[in-house]
Design brief:
The chain is mainly α. The chain has helices at residues 7-15, 21-32, 41-46, 53-67, 71-84, 88-101, 107-110, 119-132, 138-149, 155-168, 177-185, 193-206, 211-223, 227-240, 245-257, 261-273, 278-286, 293-306, 309-318, 325-332, 337-348, 354-370. The longest helix is centred in the C-terminal third of the chain and has 17 residues, at 354-370.
C-alpha cells in the first residue's frame, strides 16, 4: 500500500460514484500513510465535504500526515479549494485543518474568510491566525478587530480573535489594537468573563506602557472580584513592566489586601521585573507562609532581578533550605560580583547557619578566583 504504484488504483476507487463509505475511508487512510499520497490531494480534500463525519475525519488526518512530507503542496491545495468553494462543510473542515497546521503560507486565503457567513469557519480561521501569529498582514489585524467589536458575533469567535490579536502582538497609531482590547476589558456582564480575561492577557502581550492601559489593569487587579482575572491583570502588568509609581502602589495595596499565595507571588514577580524596592519588603512578608520549592524559586528570581544588596541578602537567607542551595548559588554567581563579594564578606563575619556559611564560602571562592 505504501508504493507509489498503488496511487492510480486508489484514485480510481475514489472517483467511482458507487464506492462505499467504508472503502472511501480505508483508501483515504492508506493515502495518508503513503509518501506519494500528495498525488491524490484533490480527492482527499474533496472528502472534507463528505456528509459522513468519519470520512471527513479520515481526510483531515491524512492531510495532516501528508503535510509533514509535502507542506507546500498540501497548504496550496487546501487553500486553492477553499478560495473556490461555496460548500459549508468543506469550508468548515478545510479551515479546521489549516488551523491545525498553523502554516503562515495559508494567510492570504484565511484572512478573507474572516468575513465568512459561517460562525464555525470564522472560529477556525481566528484560531489559525492565533496559532500562526504572523505580523506580515495588517489586514488580518483590522478584520480581527471588527470581530472583537461585534456584539452580534459568536462569543467563541470573539475570544479567538482577541487571543489572535495578542499572539500577533502588532499595534500602531493607525491600528489602535490596545483601544479595542481595553473596550473589551471594560465589559461588565459575567457572560463576558472569558472574553475579558483573554483581553487582559492580550494587553500584556502587546507590552504597551500607555497610562490608560496601566490604569485599567491596575484597577482590575485591585477591584475585580474574580480572583483569576486579578491574577491575569497582575501578569499583564508584569509583562508591561513599566516603572510606574501608581502601578507599583496599586500592586502593593493588592498584596496587602489579599492572602491568595499565587496572586501574591505574581505581584512580587511583577515588582521584580519593575526593579522595585518593594520586592524585598513584600518577600519578607510572604516567606512567613509555607511555600513549595517552585514557589520559592519564583520569588528568588524576582529578588535577583532587582539585584541590590537587600535583595541579594534575602536570597542568601532563603538558602537555609538545602533544596534551593544549587539554584541560589547559580543565580548569585551571575549577579553583580563586586556588590556580592562585599555582601558575602560582611555576612561571613556574623553568619551562624552552616548551610549559609557553605554558600558564602563557595561564592567567595568563585568570585575571588575569577579576578
Amino acid at each position: 500500500l505504501n508504493f507509489s504504484g498503488t496511487i492510480p488504483a486508489f484514485i480510481g476507487i475514489l472517483r467511482k460514484p458507487n464506492t462505499s463509505d467504508k472503502e472511501l475511508k480505508a483508501v483515504i487512510e492508506a493515502l495518508g500513510n503513503n509518501r506519494t499520497g500528495d498525488k491524490a490531494l484533490i480527492y482527499i480534500i474533496k472528502a472534507l465535504g463528505s456528509p459522513a463525519e468519519d470520512i471527513r475525519e479520515a481526510a483531515s488526518v491524512a492531510l495532516v500526515k501528508l503535510y509533514k512530507i509535502h507542506p507546500q503542496p498540501v497548504v496550496g491545495a487546501i487553500s486553492g479549494t477553499l478560495v473556490r468553494s461555496k460548500d459549508k462543510q468543506t469550508l468548515i473542515s478545510g479551515t479546521a485543518v489549516l488551523a491545525q497546521l498553523g502554516d503562515e503560507n495559508s494567510m492570504p486565503m484565511l484572512v478573507p474568510l474572516l468575513a465568512s457567513q459561517y460562525p464555525e469557519v470564522k472560529k477556525n480561521v481566528t484560531w489559525a491566525l492565533y496559532r500562526i501569529h504572523s505580523r506580515a498582514n495588517t489586514r488580518a489585524v483590522d478584520e480581527l478587530k471588527k470581530l472583537v467589536k461585534s456584539d452580534t458575533e459568536f462569543l467563541s469567535v470573539r475570544i479567538n480573535a482577541v487571543r489572535a490579536l495578542g499572539a500577533i502582538g502588532l499595534d500602531s497609531p493607525r491600528l489602535k489594537v490596545w483601544e479595542t482590547l481595553l473596550d473589551v476589558v471594560k465589559l461588565r456582564s459575567d457572560k463576558f468573563l472569558a472574553l475579558r480575561t483573554f483581553a487582559v492577557e492580550s494587553l500584556g502581550e502587546l507590552r504597551e506602557s500607555k497610562p490608560a492601559i496601566i490604569n485599567t489593569l491596575s484597577k482590575i487587579a485591585e477591584r475585580e472580584t474574580n480572583l483569576e482575572l486579578k491574577k491575569e491583570a497582575v501578569l499583564a502588568l508584569r509583562k508591561i513592566a513599566s516603572e510606574d509609581t501608581e502601578m507599583e502602589a496599586s500592586l502593593v495595596r493588592l498584596f496587602r489586601k489579599n492572602k491568595d499565595t499565587e496572586l501574591r507571588i505574581r505581584i512580587i514577580e511583577a515588582l521584580g521585573d519593575m526593579y522595585s524596592s518593594k520586592t524585598s519588603e513584600l518577600t519578607s512578608d510572604i516567606l512567613k507562609n509555607t511555600l513549595s520549592s517552585s514557589q520559592k524559586k519564583r520569588i528568588i528570581y524576582a529578588l535577583y532581578q532587582v539585584g541590590k544588596e537587600k535583595e541579594l541578602s534575602l536570597i542568601i537567607d532563603i538558602a537555609k533550605d538545602k533544596d534551593l542551595f544549587d539554584y541560589i548559588e547559580s543565580l548569585l554567581a551571575n549577579s553583580n560580583r563586586a556588590r556580592l563579594l562585599a555582601l558575602v564578606k560582611n555576612r561571613l563575619k556574623s553568619e551562624s547557619n552552616n548551610t549559609i556559611i557553605d554558600l558564602l564560602d563557595s561564592l567567595e571562592s568563585e568570585i575571588e578566583g575569577s579576578y
